[in-house]
TrEMBL record, chain A:
Its main location: membrane. One of its GO terms (cellular component) is ATP-binding cassette (ABC) transporter complex. InterPro entries: AA_ABC_transptr_permease_3TM, ArtM/GltK/GlnP/TcyL/YhdX-like, MetI-like, MetI-like_sf. This is Amino acid ABC transporter permease. It comes from Actinocatenispora comari. Belongs to the binding-protein-dependent transport system permease family. HisMQ subfamily. SUPFAM superfamilies: MetI-like.
From TrEMBL, chain B:
The chain crosses the membrane at residues 19-40, 66-88, 100-123, 143-163, 192-213, 249-274. It comes from the Bacteria. The keyword Transmembrane helix applies. This is Amino acid ABC transporter permease. One of its GO terms (biological process) is amino acid transport. It comes from Actinocatenispora comari. It is a multi-pass membrane protein. Belongs to the binding-protein-dependent transport system permease family. GO terms for molecular function: transmembrane transporter activity. Gene3D superfamilies: MetI-like (1.10.3720.10).
TrEMBL record, chain C:
One of its GO terms (cellular component) is extracellular region. It holds the Pfam family SBP_bac_3. Gene3D superfamilies: Periplasmic binding protein-like II. InterPro entries: Bact_solute-bind_prot3, Iontro_rcpt_C, Solute-binding_3/MltF_N. One of its GO terms (molecular function) is ligand-gated monoatomic ion channel activity. GO terms for biological process: amino acid transport. Belongs to the bacterial solute-binding protein 3 family. Keywords: Signal, Transport. This is ABC transporter substrate-binding protein. Residues 70-270 form the Ionotropic glutamate receptor C-terminal domain.
Length: 237, 311, 305
């Protein structure tokens, strides 16, 4: 009896989700778009900050540390709020983006998400470099390799291997964090949930599970890709 | 200092470093000055914009709202410790029917955005559990319940993996010796592994408190009256109340950010201090888990990021 | 480690600096600001006559009433971030009724304002946490099944808040084409705009107050929701913001109470009727929402049942 009812509700939920597949996939696409753009930007900023933090110049190290310390200890919600409020206040509204059909708030979201994530990228990269035994580079320099050769042939390949796992976790965390963008006018997966719950509260569970599965698939894709890369780079040690 | 990337600088390199230090200090100062000038140009940093923060009435309510933030973070971290212990026990169990559900629960709540959980909670567990919020004096009580349960599910799952890593980090010889003495699994866990693991995990647990405190700011989205909500109230109605030429947006954000950073730095120091104390202690068989290894965002991530599925 | 300490010192230092600067900046006008808080005075009936055993009689004798209001809606029900007092149009209506019950609304032991949010209003009334709910509470047939409604005491509808500079550009919802129209994510007003004015560009943010900040920043052009809520925001910044004033839907705010207290409901209807004609209703409006620069509307027709 109860089983039959549950089965009925489940098929009803599936039917409903099939009808809403259009908005669902456009929400999923929104999450992917935001994550890819913010991910690329976060990697670039993170590389710069990491380079600053391992550089021989103390002033750059301090600046890099301050950057990391700031974003590590500030809630992402607050970073989003500050970005979307302060930038237009000082006159930065990205009017040119509107002209090419990109919403101003999407750019705010990219900035907020990527600056926040960059500090974790930087930390992952830095700890990867620190994981390479000093002797490796010393040996390379001892046999007469230049700085570029040492970096390219000895340090980077080893650092990359220990950077990949934390980096993967970070991109996954970023995809999940991108949900906050819903409240800053980005049409993404969590927004799909909110809109559907407003219009069709009777399918609450189906909507929740669909959106959760969407995120799980995205995170699985990222960790799968990184696992593949790790296996490519793996050497027997 | 020697690093992987470069040797100790010689005289020529030291000169180069000095030169580039000067250049980078100038460049950084220019960037900072430009940002401050941009904001100040709009009158956002004038003395009047700071005047709300000279008002003791405002600070009373600001501390109330900070207390609301701490209430949510603290309650959820305590509940998360309990949930994490339960889930980790299941995950480490010899019985597959305990191991698999624990694995699924842990991986599900780590893979789903916390915000989605909180929003879902607003429609499900929030209203029936709102009595918790009422008892604690949090407004609105259902948003508080949705937030705390969401934080608990997420942090509990992360902590479960921390616990598991901690137990697994205790050298095998410890449990082997205990088994050799004829102890049962529960006794080994309770008397040998858990005491050692807990001490190792303390820094990671404190680091997770930082995560919970930061994530409690999501409460503002569901209307929970916490620090960030109150900050917004200051700048939103501030111009009218203190008769300012414009809303004190930047000054308010600076104060709110500073409060979060100060509290989180205090927690990070606590974690670092614990880490140092632990690694000094002779009684430990293994090195403590650092915040980097566990608590913070990197590990608090997705399905395959953490442990392998149980066999 | 050292760097972290440096960072913290810098942060604490800037905080302290901020406070010092603040002390330098604020003058002695603190009093005027706090007194400015909208607060009217209403008749406190010395010795009101109620039928023995009636709800009004019980409240009067207990010298205590709990009124559920909003704490986060400027101009309607708003907890002032400096004085900690609640103020706004709904509060004024509450004070007016409390006065008629012979209670001193300046004494928070007699008249207690409690925060209610949209989701817990019905529960609060059913379990007796509050006696009345005056919290931009729309009368609907669905809700009438659960609670008793006196009033309506205010009639409003979905309206538009705009920058004064755009006064000639945005006059009706038909002018919204190409304009960025802000409201709360997942809210009905936003759904209305998406459905009926597809040429408008909807912007969904977390709360109405976020939309107001973006409106002041010129990142969005319009904030749309209940006119009363908009008037409250306009009253906070009357130099720059204004409400268009042509609602395109109807909401009727009522005073909610326990469904079984029919005597109280009918009595409040009579008091509201009296306030419409003796000017105290208009006074409540002028002190709060009226600061937006919009004239007081005509009193609504009571829905007695």
């Amino acid at each position: 009896m109860v089983l039959a009812e549950t089965a009925g509700a489940a098929t009803g939920g599936l039917e409903f989700l099939w009808q809403q597949r259009g908005p669902f996939f456009s929400g999923l696409l929104g999450t992917v778009e935001l994550s890819v753009v913010a991910g690329i930007l976060a990697t670039i900023i993170g590389l710069i900050v990491a380079a600053m933090r391992v550089s021989p110049i103390p002033a750059l190290r301090v600046a890099g540390t301050a950057w990391s310390g700031f974003f590590r200890n500030t809630p992402l919600t607050l970073v989003f709020l500050a970005t979307s409020v302060v930038l237009p206040l000082v006159g930065i509204r990205f009017a040119w983006a509107d002209a090419i059909g990109v919403d101003t708030f999407f750019i705010f979201a990219v900035i907020a998400l990527s600056t926040y994530t960059s500090c974790f990228v930087a930390d992952a990269i830095r700890s990867g470099f620190n994981a390479v035994p000093v002797g490796q580079a010393e040996a390379a320099r001892a046999v007469g390799m230049t700085f570029g050769q040492t970096l390219r042939l000895v340090v980077l390949p080893q650092a990359l291997r220990s950077v990949l796992p934390p980096l993967a976790s970070m991109y996954i965390a970023m995809i999940k964090n991108s949900a906050i963008a819903e409240f800053f006018n980005v049409g993404e997966l969590t927004r799909f949930f909110d809109d559907q719950v407003r219009d069709h509260p009777e399918h609450l569970y189906a909507e929740f599970i669909a959106v959760a599965v969407g995120y799980i698939v995205l995170t699985l894709l990222v960790s799968g890709a990184f696992n593949l890369a790790e296996r490519r780079l793996a050497v027997s040690r | 200092m020697t690093s992987v990337l470069y040797d100790n600088p010689g005289p020529a390199a030291r000169r180069r470093v000095r030169f580039w230090t000067a250049v980078s200090v100038l460049a950084l100062a220019a960037v900072v000055a430009f940002v401050i000038w941009q904001v100040a140009r709009k009158g956002q940093l004038s003395a009047a914009m700071w005047s709300p923060f000279a008002d003791p009435g405002l600070w009373r309510q600001l501390f109330d709202s900070l207390f609301a933030t701490i209430k949510a973070a603290l309650l959820s971290i305590v509940l998360a410790l309990v949930l994490g212990a339960v889930l980790a026990t299941g995950r480490l169990s010899d019985r597959a029917w305990l191991r698999w559900p624990a694995f699924v629960v842990i991986e599900f709540f780590r893979a789903v955005p916390l915000l989605l959980l909180i929003l879902f909670g607003l429609f499900t567990w929030g209203p029936p559990l709102s009595f918790i919020g009422t008892a604690i004096g949090a407004t609105p009580p259902d948003a508080f319940a949705a937030l705390v349960v969401g934080l608990t599910l997420y942090n509990g799952s992360v902590l479960a993996e921390v616990f598991r890593a901690g137990i697994n980090a205790v050298p095998r010889g410890q449990s082997e010796a205990a088994y050799a003495l004829g102890m049962r699994k529960t006794a080994v866990m309770r008397m040998i592994l858990a005491p050692q693991a807990i001490r190792m995990m303390l820094p990671a647990i404190v680091a997770q408190c930082v995560v919970a405190l930061k994530d409690s700011a999501l409460g503002f989205i569901v209307g929970y009256q916490e620090l960030l909500s109150f900050g917004k109230r200051i700048y939103q109605g501030g111009a009218d109340i203190w008769e300012l030429p414009q809303p004190p947006v930047v000054t308010t954000l600076i104060v709110v950010v500073a409060i979060y950073i100060v509290i989180n730095l205090l927690l990070s120091w606590l974690a670092a201090w614990l880490e140092r104390r632990m690694s000094r202690s002779r009684k430990l068989a293994a090195a403590p888990l650092t915040a980097m290894q566990t608590g913070e965002e990197p590990v608090a991530a997705g399905p395959l990021g953490g442990g392998e599925p149980p066999k | 480690m050292k760097l972290k300490r440096l960072l913290a010192v810098a942060v604490i230092g800037s905080l302290a600096l901020g406070t010092v600067a603040a002390c330098g900046g604020s003058k002695l006008d603190d009093k005027t600001k706090k007194d400015k808080a909208a607060s009217g005075s209403y008749t406190i009936v010395k010795d009101p006559k109620f039928a023995a055993g009636s709800t009004m009689d019980k409240i009067h004798k207990a010298k205590h009433i709990k009124i559920g209001v909003k704490f986060d809606q400027p101009g309607i029900g708003y907890k002032n971030p400096t004085s900690g007092k609640v103020e706004g149009y709904d509060i004024e209506i509450g004070k007016m009724i409390a006065g008629q019950l012979g209670l001193d609304y300046n004494d928070n032991k007699q008249v207690e304002f409690v925060e209610t949010v949209s989701k817990n209003r019905e529960t609060f009334l059913e379990n007796g946490t509050v006696d009345l709910v005056i919290a931009s509470y729309s009368i609907t047939d669905e809700r009438k099944q659960l609670v008793g409604f006196a009033g309506p005491y205010y009639e409003t509808g979905q309206d538009m808040l705009i920058r004064k500079a755009d006064k000639d550009k945005i006059k009706t919802p038909d002018d919204l084409a190409g304009k960025k129209v802000c409201s709360v994510t997942g809210s009905t007003p936003l759904a209305n705009i998406e459905k009926n004015y597809p040429k408008a560009k909807p912007v969904a943010l977390a709360q109405y107050s976020d939309c107001v900040t973006q409106l002041q920043n010129s990142t969005v052009d319009v904030l749309t929701t209940d006119g009363a809520i908009l008037l409250g925001y306009a009253a906070q910044d009357p130099d720059h913001l204004m409400v268009v004033g042509k609602p395109f839907s109807t909401e009727k705010y009522g005073i909610g109470m326990n469904k079984d207290r029919t005597d109280l409901r009918k009595w409040i209807d009579d008091r509201l009727d009296a306030s419409f004609s003796d000017g105290s209703w208009k006074k409540a409006y002028d002190l709060t929402l009226g600061k937006s620069g919009s004239e007081a509307p005509n009193p609504p027709t009571l829905d007695r049942y």
